[in-house]
Amino acid sequence: MGRAFSLRFAKEGAKIVVVDFVKETGMETVEMVKKTNGHAVFVFADLTKLEDAKQAVAKAAEAFGRVDILVNNAGIQHMGTVVETSEANWDKTMATNLKSMFLMSKFAVPEIAKNGGSIINMASDAGLIGNPNTAAYCASKGGVIALTRAMALDHAGQGIRVNCICPGAIDTPLLERGLQELTQEQREAWRGRVKVRYPLGRIGKPEEVAEVALFLASSRSSFMTGAAVSVDGGLTIQ
């Protein structure tokens, strides 16, 4: 989804800072943006670490002179109940999915406050209604929604709007990696449930989420802050 966001925002004229701890994929995204005549730079960082997050924001401000929009999109998912989830996987999930947003926002807010802007946090339907067999992931995404609301209240006076997106299942490598942790029988059962559980009868595409992120980043959503926007094919309205 981060790649889809980068390409869609660049199409609207935004200058993009791609932050990733995998250099190859980060650079691929930068090159894809450049091929569309967009502007992008790559910053290598582990956003679960304070100094890396601090440097990522500093390099963004240095590259383009200002920071207007932050999309907090780092995320992982491990399958398992609280009984099955290891402490290491719990800690890694919380660090990646929630702590990274705290750290990036900590350093981005003062930059964004100079001119006003928007922060978009990636939550999940799992933070709204819960999903089976993903205890750590659900807990982290519920935390993202609560953090979004707190930030919206704290920074509205600085001209910063803070919203989050709650996607349902989206066709991404993250989803595929999660499915690979299941047995073949469990994967087939999951795919069968999608058609039953989702009123639109399918999972989403990263580009569909990117359109919502673009809306939340733009002046078209100027009276929205603290919102948790569902992009889930109707899953959570049932």
Descriptive labels:
238 residues, alpha/beta, four-stranded parallel β-sheet, two-stranded parallel sheet, 8 helices, 14% strand
Structural write-up:
- With 238 residues, the chain is an alpha/beta fold.
- The protein has eight helices and six strands, in the order αβαβαβαβαβαααβ.
- Helix 4 (87-112) links the parallel strand 3 and strand 4 (117-122).
- The longest helix is centred in the middle third of the chain and has 26 residues, at 87-112.
- The two termini are 25 Å apart.
- The mean pLDDT is 94.
Briefly say what this structure is.
50% of the residues lie in helices and 14% in strands. The radius of gyration is 17 Å and the shape is globular.
The CATH class, by name, is Alpha Beta
CATH topology title: Rossmann fold
CATH superfamily: NAD(P)-binding Rossmann-like Domain
Secondary structure tally: strands: 6
- Quaternary structure: single chain
Topology (elements, then pairings):
Elements (H helix, E strand, L loop, with lengths): L1 H10 L3 E6 L2 H13 L3 E6 L5 H15 L4 E4 L14 H26 L4 E6 L12 H21 L4 E8 L5 H8 L3 H14 L8 H12 L10 E4 L7
Helix pairs in contact: 1-2, 1-8, 3-4, 4-5
